[in-house]
Write a structure and sequence with these properties.
The complex is a heterotrimer of chains A (608), B (300) and C (315). By secondary structure, chain A is of the alpha+beta class. Helices cover 23% and strands 19% of the residues of chain A. Chain A has 2 domains: 47-266, Periplasmic binding protein-like II (D-Maltodextrin-Binding Protein, domain 2), CATH 3.40.190; 332-578, Dipeptide-binding Protein, domain 3. Chain C is built from 14 helices and 2 strands; from the N terminus they run ααααββαααααααααα. Chain C has a two-stranded antiparallel ribbon with strand order 1-2. The radius of gyration of chain C is 24 Å and the shape is globular. Classes of the chains: A alpha+beta (608), B mainly alpha (300), C mainly alpha (315). At the B-C interface, helix 4, helix 5, helix 9, helix 10 and helix 11 of B face helix 1, helix 6, helix 7, helix 9 and helix 11 of C.
Chain lengths: 608, 300, 315
Amino acid sequence: MARTRLALGAAALGAATLVAACGVSTSSGDTATTATTGGTAVWAENSAPTAIFPFVDATALVNTTVQFQYLMYRPLYWQGSGSSPDVDYTKSLAQKPVYTGNQVVVNLKDYSWSNGEKVSATDVMFFMNMLLVEKTKYGQYVTGEFPDNVTSVRATGPEQVTFTLNKPYSPNWFTSNQLYQITPFPEAWDKTSDSASSGSGGCATDKSKCDAVYNYLKDKNKKVSGYATDALWQVVDGPWQLKSFTSEGVADFVRNPKYSGPDKAKLDGFNEVPFTSQEAEFNALKAGGTINVGPIPASSEPKRDPNSSSLLPPTNPAGADKYNLITDQVWAWTYGLLNYGNPTLGATYKQLYVRQALQETIDQVTDSAVADRGYAVPGTGPVPNQPATQYLADVQKSNNGQGPYPFNVSKAKSRLTDHGWTEQGGVMTCTRPGSGADQCGDGVNAGTRLSMSMEYSGSTTTSEVMQQWKADASKAGIEINLDPQPISTALTDLTSCPAVASSCKWQLGFLGGGTFNSVPTGDQFFIPGSSENINGINDPQLTTLVQNSLTDSASTAFLEYETYAATQLPGTVNLPGGYGIYAVSKNLGGVSINPLQSLSPEDWYFTK
Amino acid sequence: MPIPDPAPGEPLAQQDEPARPMWRLVPQILLRNKLAVAGLGVVVFFVLFCFIGPLLYHSNQELANLRTADLPPGSPGFPLGTDDVGYDELGRLMIGGQSALEVGLAAAAIATVFGSLWGAVAGYLGGWVDVIMMRIVDTLLATPGLFLVLLLASIITPTEGLLILVIAFSSWLGPARLVRGETLSLRTRDYVQAVRMMGGGNRRTILRHILPNAIGVIVVNTTFQIADAVLTLAALSFLGFGIPPPHADWGGMLSKGTDFTANDYWWMIVWPGLCIVLIVVAFNFLGDALQDAFEVRLRK
Amino acid sequence: MTGYLIRRILQSVLVVVLASFVTFLLTDLLPGGPARAILGPRATEQQIQEFSHANGYDRPIPVQYGIWINNILHGDLGYSVKLNQSVGALIADRLPKTMVLMVISIAVALVVAVPLGIYQARRRDTLGDYAVTSLSFLLYAMPGFLVALLLVLVFSTGLGWFSPTAPQTGDVGQILAQGNALVLPVATLALITIATFSRYVRSSVMENLTQEYVRTALANGAGDGRVMVVHVLRNAMIPIATLLGLSLPSLVAGAAITESVFNYPGMGYTFIGEAEVRDYPVVLGIALVVSVATVVGSLLADIAYATLDPRVKYG
């Protein structure tokens, strides 16, 4: 699933779109029900999909749109399998790639498009050529990564493509974090006008022709009224075909009878319905008869005891007579940002003890229990704590799950006083500048005050966490002034430093965090110049460790990076990672949402 | 709230001599109207509750404490319960009302003063000045005020002063039109003509003769403006454009309370909701009674 | 009269142009422009620059405005990158839905408010008047989202009589066919509007009841009812006509909060949603439509005034 920020209005801590029950059966209780075929299930969307052409730019790169597209146009590799973030090879178009040194050989399975043509190597080349030419317009593109790390790609068989990489990479990482971006395009799209024949565009074989084809398809993509009617978009290789689509985002799908995959749909139809607000969606859920699968808004969840063995709510707010509940865990890292580029406090934030002190003033246990209403666990590093996977290093599990820096206000305070800070008027001030062990640190001027603003965007949960942090931090002499903003303002304010010098006045920031691909590497967060590195992190040792984790297939490289990052808190503080609760109609089985948020209604079925 | 635009010639006052001072009659009329008395009582109660209350009843309203969050009324130490970050509801209602009253009164006052002057000048001078001034009013009416609010809220963190200005800015148009209408009819009065013939300047005439006689309309409008300002503040908080925490205001409290409806935290909705409704109703009763009072004066 | 009309229409056009320019200016106030908000956090600085340049956001405001006006005169309201739709198509889709909701709500409000206002004026200072006035003020004093919440709690979640979701279709015919789904959103809007309208009817009727001409008519033997209907009502309707004219903008602007609560993506909801993400083309487009509706409404109100009130003469 695409890596996108969680910072979309309603989503933040305790995000509402989340993943499957980890290890818990999704249909509770009655195993004697029989699965039937037929029927139409209705899914409540977060927002309306805005693009059908699966070559989305940054604007359209949101979960809803990607989920929408994947129903019809399968990606080469399907991220997320059950409750694990790993690649699901059963749902993938290709077999597990074979890695030999710099070479990767991908063998496609026997899939066909709905117009009869085979999903072939040409289709993969079609996508690759377009990507190579139009990569700057591709939302998932990251400089230096795919396809920059591919020196050559060619079809080496009717159903085989061979990639030559610029160096050997960890197969695990490359398959799930890079190759997943490929969505083969049908030959039927390779043209530059409606009346032209399939393949006449020539992009599949000649890169120089791709621009024209891209512009044609982009133009088609703008005609929302044609999504369900245009023959172009009817050529699908996924289990679903679009029957109707409105400008508000109401999408009706029907089963694709020509689907080649093993996971053929049992339902006849699948509808996506957008809602104007969480309140509206929840009311519809309670009234019944409209939605089969929809989220429970965070504030409507009953409080859950964090020590309870069940991840589910103690009572069913949507109505136990109508719905079962499942969990939705997101493969994400929820964190706050410290701006290294801030003229007043940048140098201060660069001091490890300051970051440790800041982390120790965050009471994540209380936050999880109250702000997240019990549906969260403390965040302890740049690897998601939930669901627990092989990626989680011991350091992140330490202190009973609180990580290397559990909540401890007095310890935070003493860290500061030990380094030459004195409380003046309730705010810690640097009274012993210098680079010594008991001094403020390199670049921290005398008189620097630990008074900072936190610009954040998020829901009620976020607001509660931030207010609690403010209260606890003040007890350690750290003054945090809260500055909640709408997401568009927060994005604009926080993401332009240091390119735009006047944008560096933000000090603490929160945009929701970030989501990962299957392998939660830190290349997007910690390498200087990477897309999420908006706060100026530049730690050579960390950079090396991150890069090692991409190339070294041994898990030790990854764990080494993680241990370092968890203890160093590079430019970040961890916040509780929440999961959501979805209501599923009692007579609908097979419903689960994996940590990568892949939507697979082809696995659902109505029961008798 | 839309205000009808009285066209020229509408006889709002039938008399041809200067009116007796309003303020002599007002208390009499108010006392006769029981609803108005109730309204006045409510307003006085809230002023005391919000400004004197916190001096007598101390509660922590600065630092959140999730450990005491979501407690129902009657919990030890929290007679009316706590909100979602642990603040005492009773104490929060008190300081929450301060913004509502301050913003309401200040915004209404600014809007009314500015709008009345604008309308009086436009109505009195007439001609091209009138046309231009009223077209400016029309232009501003036609500009989405909400957009202005959204924009300002995203550039600057909303403060009470900013909200006062924003609400006043979108509310002065009503009084402007009303007072213009009043002025148009008033300027034909004999006594106004007399003053002018005796050499009274425009400014003097407007300030000392036109406005005092239009005061009825102005005062009535002000009370409704206050009520509207409180409601606008609540709506803004609902849309997310209130003043950030730890600031408190009834609208924000109510809107946050509605988030938790499914969890039966009724006290988060009922107390602030009751306060908003009571204060708005109170000001409306007052305005209504004052309107009646001026009707009575007209009848005589 | 014709001269007056022509002058007013010309002035109205000027007002619309000015209003749209003011709105345009307001968009320039936002630091950073719309690029980052539209393109998202992963976009590079270079992509931001390209986007800003391609959409003309780096040009001076008067130039941008000129281009926008020019496009409008050619029938092009712009294109929303965020929603991937043309602004014109978006408005054409949302406007009918909004109008249906608002027209029905205002009509219901009128039908209830007028008799109510008359009752209040005639039974003035009685218990009945107090009760109705109090109730009407109570409704007025409740924030819209609270009214919506209570209605849904009682009538949907509680009693299950009505759907908590407004009609989901864009087709006007189908919207009207789903009466059950329209009840609660209409009720929410109507209840608050009734409070406003009835107050105006009440004070207007009261004022007219005391007029000379009423006493004269009664003295001349005219029946109480006839006087009421023929004379009083006609004059009392003047401010109502004005009120309706001034409500015209709300017909197209919708009610954002109600739309949000009842899942009815209309003009108001769209406006706020897109303003939050700095989708300027949509915001400017909707603002323009609302501006036009405002001046048209204002003009209609003045014309109604002149028609209904024989004392008013426009020259």
